[in-house]
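Many introductory courses stop at the sequence. We go one step further.
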Amino acid sequence: MKAIQFIGKGQPLLADISEPRDLPSGHVLIKIRASGLCHTDIDVLHGRYGSGAFPVVPGHEFAGEIKAVADGVTNFKIGDRVVVDPNLPCGTCAACMKGLTNLCTDLKAYGVTQDGGFGEFCAVHCDQIHPVGNLSFDVAALAEPLACALNGIGAAGFGPGATPPSEVVIFGAGPIGLLLALSLKSRGTKNVTMADLNDSRLEFAAGLGLQVARSEPEFLASRRRDFDFVADATGVPSVVQDMIQLVADGGTALLFGVCPPDATVSIHPFEVFRRQLKIVGSHSLNRNIPEAIAMLETDDGSMAKLVSHRLPLEEMLKFFLAKPSDPATMKIQFVSK
């Protein structure tokens, strides 16, 4: 079968590899119908942080149709339409025992340490798949990044049943920042501002009904202590440092974007103490796929607009070698019939 394969750090190619056969017990064979590109695919497999296993087929945001089932699979059948939770925690370490499976000390994942969604087929354990009903496959493939956003919102204290923040600013109007914003809107937050320096992205965000602002010094100076919840979705250390001044007394700052592992920022601990600020982090998803599917099922179509490119596999390779140059690019997906 055709697949994109990393044969080593930073070495992706379009390859002919064997289709998964002789499925292990408890596994299903999925015909990939949509698989989204994430910067994690690129950063980890290029060796910028974390660790992958090589050779490996990337792709951890994917949905498709079950084509075969192995023994031990009782809750799914051939023809079922499903999306994958890529995280494979050990289940026995201290983090797993606390329910923090995303922080597993031996965390593995489809698309990182096991073959993932940028091929024609993928073998997946039945515990890692969820039915998607009538969702289109391209929308269903958004469940994984949306689940990451929901995990971040939950880590910040605004999960299901919590009072939503009233004033929010999110730095970085890319796909994941917009998923954070749209999730908060879905939860009841009325005022969500997207801050970015890219005019086309700000225009796109405004078209989704979000407030927008250029993240320039004037904006930072004019909105000090104005927001109950401030989130970074850029992974730029200077943005993380500057955003703290926008957090209202008693408010929360979320470090969601992936900063370089060796980066540092300067924060005044007295200010955190005196203003009772909460600074939280978020990593990946933690069994949030069902919640994400439910949100996608009730979405008004805004989240589907985040998919800007639906491409055949052959056209995906270039995006593993270089970042898109077009600032209007949002979520890029491999799609197949």
